[in-house]
Design brief:
This protein is an alpha/beta fold. The protein has twelve helices and ten strands. The termini are far apart.
Length: 308
């Protein structure tokens, strides 16, 4: 595959995997989806991932996920790149989601290996090859060890990067050394997302370049997009200041393994959105909302970061 394959997409910067508003256990909050999308675009997001891990794809019906893509596509058009979370347990399901996302105007798909069953390397390669051959949208491979039980090694990621449809990797390993080896080995071939917005990430981006971060939720708004906007404008101190705010959130709300400290990631981020007067809402079972005490801890972080 040509080294210029990464140039097929213009994805870069801060692209959050956003939450999915629900009215109750059984109802997608379409109005809430629209309000949240508008706020995120107003905050300068460089793209949006819908129905990712943070979007609770695991508890949505097929019809709901398809409807979410329809609503987002109709509202957003081409205002920002939209990437559809199409992870599922089978290639057949993933292909169906991806084909619908394409019809809705999405620019690409984000896909993990099938969770729970822990497929081996050859099975993972075959899965992505089957999906890639059946869809028109470019693929971002999602390495998400907490959700799949697999931290895909570099040798496997090299094989996946050779698949023609694969143009990017969301490298969400908790091991920074693994992210770095992925970036340096594959950056000329595919886009690599996962830069921490700290001094280490800032230094790598300044010296070596890089594509961006597909972060959770985008709840800090321009404090997160500003890390890249200011970096690109040459305002290194400004980028550093934005990155420090993101680091506070990551350290106070998540463990080093990228697992939520107060419950699930979606529950934490929805509590944050609620605190800011934005559409957060309930999480779906088996996930539970955070306690009142933890809601106060989340709000305290937001006050510290001048988000309330």
């Amino acid at each position: 595959m040509a080294a210029s394959k990464r140039s097929r997409v213009n994805w870069q910067g801060y692209i959050p995997a956003i939450t999915t508003p629900f009215i109750d256990e059984d109802t997608l909050d379409e109005k809430g989806v629209g309000l949240l999308l508008e706020w995120l675009v107003d905050q300068g997001m460089h793209g949006l991932v819908l129905a990712g891990t943070t979007g609770e794809w695991t508890s949505m019906t097929r019809e709901e996920r398809a409807r979410l893509f329809t609503v987002a596509g109709e509202q957003m058009g081409k205002r920002v790149p939209l990437i559809a979370g199409c992870s599922s347990f089978t290639a057949r399901e993933t292909i169906a989601y991806a084909q619908h996302a394409g019809q809705c105007g999405f620019e690409g798909v984000l896909i993990t290996p099938p969770p729970y069953v822990r497929p081996g390397p050859d099975e993972i390669v075959a899965f992505y090859e089957e999906v890639g051959a059946a869809i028109d949208l470019p693929i971002c491979v999602y390495n998400w060890p907490p959700g799949t039980g697999i931290d895909m090694p570099l040798e496997l990621l090299r094989r996946l990067a050779e698949i023609d449809a694969v143009v990017a990797i969301k490298q969400s390993t908790p091991r920074f050394t693994h992210f770095a080896e992925t970036f340096f080995a594959l950056r000329e071939q595919v886009r690599v997302f996962g830069f921490p917005m700290d001094e280490l990430g800032l230094t790598m981006l300044r010296v070596h370049g890089g594509d961006g971060t597909m972060g959770a939720g985008g709840v800090l708004g321009r404090n997160q997009t500003g890390f890249y906007d200011k970096l690109w404008a040459g305002d290194i101190d400004g980028a550093r200041e934005c990155g420090l705010k993101d680091r506070v959130l990551m350290e106070e709300w998540y463990t080093p393994e990228l697992v939520g400290r107060f419950g699930s990631g979606p529950a934490i981020l929805k509590a944050a959105l609620d605190a800011m007067g934005l559409p957060g809402g309930t999480v779906r079972k088996p996930l539970l909302g955070v306690s009142e005490a933890d809601r106060e801890s989340i709000a305290e972080t937001l006050r510290k970061l001048d988000m309330m």
